[in-house]
Amino acid sequence: MTVSTAPDLLTDAQLADYAKLILKVTGIRVSPQKKMLLSNRIRRRLKATDIESFGDYYQQLCKLSVDDHEWDMFLQEITTHETYLFRDEVHWDWFRDSFLPEISLAAIQGKRKKELRIWSAACSTGDEACTIACCIADRLQNSAKWKIEILGTDIGVDAVKKASESLFGERAMRLVPENYRSRFFKRQDQDDLWAANPELKHWMKFRQHNLLDRLMVSPFDLIFLKNVLIYFDPDAKKTTAAHLCRLLKPGGILVTSAAENVSEHLTSLQRLAPWRHRNPEAPNTRDAKKGGTR
What we know:
Blueprint: H1 12-26, H2 35-49, H3 54-63, H4 69-79, H5 89-108, E1 115-120, H6 127-139, E2 147-154, H7 157-165, E3 167-168, H8 178-184, E4 185-187, E5 194-196, H9 198-203, E6 204-208, E7 220-224, H10 234-246, E8 248-255, E9 270-273, E10 276-278, H11 286-291
Helix pairs in contact: 1-3, 2-4, 5-6
């Protein structure tokens, strides 16, 4: 089939149509300044699908269910951002040096069960979830005796598939401490890839999920959602924040990036830092609170 050359850029009207569609499905607001970026990414889907124009592709998306494979490929194009292990050092310093030692002590003192549930929301290819697992393996005392569950979710099915493989390139591994590389990863012969060891993979599970939808699972001790809400419009932030708060255990912690400006939607939580909020504990857990994470 001969495919006509697509226009270089979306028209303003086409950009508005795509932006409205993307906002409806994902909560992400596309600004007019992203015209060239969005045009380039959609053009890759035109080539892959043999569709001739931006307008025809838009009509095709409107006809398809959001569960269709092409929607997944489209969302993968427009939501893919750089990700790597140990991004945002201050968060991991807190997680390793404060959170994990404190819950370990609380368990030793009989103030909590040896159970830990963590959600890496919008996990992309699993770099954040694997970072979580590395820190737990290194800093949680007697981690083998704990029930540890790390759930990673992402809107893109392809991203979830890659996350489940737990394979990372050199660029994604560039901030991983050398002792972590040798302890928790194995160098693969091909393509300069590093594979997470079975202990880490045992703790991690991945599934597809849209943050605008409720995740029907048990609450978490800790939720990471970083460098995502900054792209959401106010209504989508409010919806997502409500879902996050509902899934925090009493005393649970929500970690975001400081620039995401989401505090106004987290009024039911205690603000510990610009990037860290805590779900208040129930009144009858006062003793546990003294040994809990702050």
